[in-house]
Amino acid sequence: MTASGKFLLWKWIVRLFALLFFSWSPHASANNPFQQGVGTQAPSSRLSEARVLLTRGNPKEAIRILSEYLGTHSKDSSARLMLGQAYAMTGQTDQAEAELQTVIQESPSNSVALAALGELYAGAGELEKAESFLARAAKTGRGSPQIRMEWSVVLARLHRYKEAKNALADVPLPNDKTDQISFHRLVASIELGLGHPSTAAAEMEKALALKPGDSGLALATAAAQVQDKQWERAAKLTGPLFARSHEPGIGLLLLEAELAMGGEFQELLNLLDSTKMAFAESVEFRQRIAELLVAHGKFPEAAEEFKKAAALEPNRPGLLFNLALAEFRAGQLDDSLESAEKCKAFGDSAEIEDLLGDIQEARGDNLAAIRSYQAAVTLAPTEEKYRLSLAVEFIRHQNFDAAKVVLRQAEELQPKSWRIQLALGMVEYFTGTDQEATRILLGAANLASDPETALKYLGDIQIAQASAPDPGALEKLCQYSDQHPNDGKMQFYCGALIFRRDYTSGDKAHSGQIVSMLSRASRLLPADPAPRCQLGRVYRWLDRWQLALSESESCVRMDPDSAEAHYRLAQIYQHLGQRERSNAEMKVYETASKRVADENARRDETIKSFLYTIQKETPDHK
Questions:
Q1: Is 191 helix (H, G, I), strand (E, B) or coil?
Q2: I want to staple 360 with a disulfide (CB 3.0 to 4.6 A). Which of 1, 311, 368, 509 is the partner?
Q3: pLDDT confidence tier of residue 483, bands split at 50, 70 and 90
């Protein structure tokens, strides 16, 4: 593992899955187009004798006979095809290629020779060449199912999965059971490559049903079920296999399933830890275990596995980095600091300084954290995430002027970064310059491929204002809500801000749109009181008092600590002549208003939310 700033994704299962899918070869079956071709033309007893020798696994004698025969019958393509096969069987690929090329030169549409040459290249790993000849064979061979299967295999190995699926279109399931298993495995590999794990798993189950006692098929099926996140089925398949073999790779599959199911995994982990293997394999194996544990939030256990791996190979800084990161996530701050310092001793980097900053901040040493974040920026001055880490540290301690300086420098280096613009906009908001914050957040939303995060903060700022909303902000929020009608928060922002605009101007022409959007928002956000509170205000504005009462009562039930909600409900009760209820609500309002957080407290909460968001949204962040 390398010191990448985050744990490597666990690829062991995927590699195992692919290996098991491609561990077979269609041309090994009885329906091999090459064998069919050489078996259909037997003009002499010498050719018959050569064919028998090949069948019995004696290609050297067959080569002698066929070479003599072709000395006097050089145009006999069936003999030359057999000679090419014989050379291939003995590993003399250059001679095999020459013979097959000769056949193709004399007969360019000979699908058997084209397929045989394609298979020869596939076996040598020359996949692009193989694909070219197999494609020609499939086109000239009148749709031979076996050739199309081999072509599909090569396309899949080239990761051209859509083409591989098309090559198999309308190919019937073979009659032979062994070929049927191969067919299902091929389809499964293609579907997995296309991102359809459920279909891939179903195909592997079909293959396993044909030969249920086959351990290799069971393992490949388990790997498919892991990809489909069918954990119970994966555990059911791998459990007996691991109990019999104690094979490390199978144990990892089982561990993945057990962790995902949230069951007891410690006994299995102990068994895996006790597995005996070569030194180099042991280090790699413990890393894989640790990565799995990290992926499922088992940080203390992951730290132990990384520690064991680092003990075996203490001079690998990547191991030490990931040990430090696991210890940090496990809350083992002193151990994490020690591991990070050991890693740094092998060579400083922005990643290790960034992690040291996180550790020092968690330990409460703000000055040391700032020094580490500044060191990370110095070591990687053009990378966005390190400047953001430094700015976030200043924001966390409300040193907004310093944060602004860092972000302005970052903006000069990366003017197209929406994250930097988002952070700048929020710093302006935290310092009370809402208008400038709005301008910058609009720019962030325009830069982002997915502007929802920036728009959320933009919407919150506009909702919190007492004045009419910024026209540009309103337009952007409503444009996004129109494009995402099932995003309840955006429906709320747009409806509430149109209401704010029209309430200020006294224009009721858009009241139907306002009611529709806020009603939709309340359905999409059933636990959020804000849409119902706004609907109560809108209905009161429209003199629809019973609806105003209903929505306002829902508002105070959902948000009983809102002084504003109780005040508005008291006014509605008073208008409807329900004086006692109005007086009761005013008393609740007076009590609640004493608990209302001031503006600084509200901004503090927004700072906490923003700090979480910006760190989550930072690319490659720990």
A1: helix
A2: 368
A3: very high
- Closest by Cα among 586, 580, 536, 587 to 558: 536
Amino acid identity, position 374: Q
Neighbours of 108 (CB within 10 A): 11
Query: Of 574, 524, 531, 580, nearest to 552 (Cα)?
Result: 531
Fold category of 12-241 in CATH:
1.25.40
Q: Give the number of other CB atoms < 10 A from CB of residue 102.
A: 18
The answer to whether 428 touches 458, Cβ cutoff 8 Å, is no
- Angle in degrees, CA 312, 318, 324, rounded to 5: 85
Per-residue model confidence (pLDDT) at position 276: 84
Judge contact between 235 and 216, C-beta under 8 A: no
Task: Please tell me which residue, 489 or 73, carries the higher pLDDT value.
Answer: 489
Report the Cα 600 to chain-centroid distance in Å: 39
Query: What number is the average pLDDT over the span 283-299?
Result: 94
298: left (phi over 0), alpha (psi -120 to 50) or beta: beta
Q: 529 with 569: CB under 8 angstroms?
A: no
User: Under 8 Å CB-to-CB from 141, ≥6 apart: which residues?
Assistant: 33, 111, 112, 114, 115, 147
Q: Assign 565 to helix, strand or coil.
A: helix
Q: What is the DSSP letter of 506?
A: T
Separation of alpha carbons 48 and 185, rounded Å? 35
Render pLDDT for 292-325 as a digit per residue (tens, 0 to 9).
999 999 999 999 999 999 999 999 999 999 999 9
| Per-residue three-class SS string for 230-280 | CHHHHHHHHHHHHHHHCCHHHHHHHHHHHHHHCCCCHHHHHHHHCCCCCHH
Residues with Cβ within 8 Å of 498's Cβ and at least 6 positions away in sequence, in order, are 474, 478, 510, 513, 514, 517
| Residue 234 contacts residue 256 (beta carbons within 8 Å) | yes
Alpha carbon distance 571, 582 (integer Å)? 7
Length of the chain: 622
**Dist CA 119 CA 130 (whole Å):** 6
Q: How far apart are CA 162 and CA 6, in angstroms?
A: 32
Reading the block at residue 165, the tokens are: 């699926």
Q: By C-alpha distance, which of 384, 385, 319, 318 is closest to 358?
A: 385
Residue 38 pLDDT level (bands cut at 50, 70, 90): very low
How many angstroms separate the CA atoms of 552 and 540, rounded?
A: 10
Task: Please determine, for residue 54, whether its predicted confidence score (pLDDT) is greater than 90.
Answer: no
Characterize 420-447 residue by residue with b for buried, 16 or more Cβ atoms within 10 angstroms of its Cβ, and e for exposed. Answer: bbbbbbbbbbbbeebeebbebbbbbbeb
Report CA-CA distances (Å) from 283 to 275, 287, 319.
12, 6, 10
Q: Are residues 480 and 455 in contact, defined by beta-carbon separation less than 8 angstroms?
A: yes
Closest by CA to 562, choosing from 577, 573, 552, is 552
Which amino acid appears at position 556 of this protein?
Answer: V
C-alpha 196: how far from chain center: 14
Furthest-apart CA pair in the chain: how many Å?
118
Sequence-distant (6+) residues with CB within 8 A of 515 are 495, 535, 538, 539
Q: What is the pTM of this model?
A: 0.76
How far apart CA 146 and CA 129 sit, in angstroms, is 18
**Looking at residue 1, what is its pLDDT?**
34
pLDDT score for 48: 86
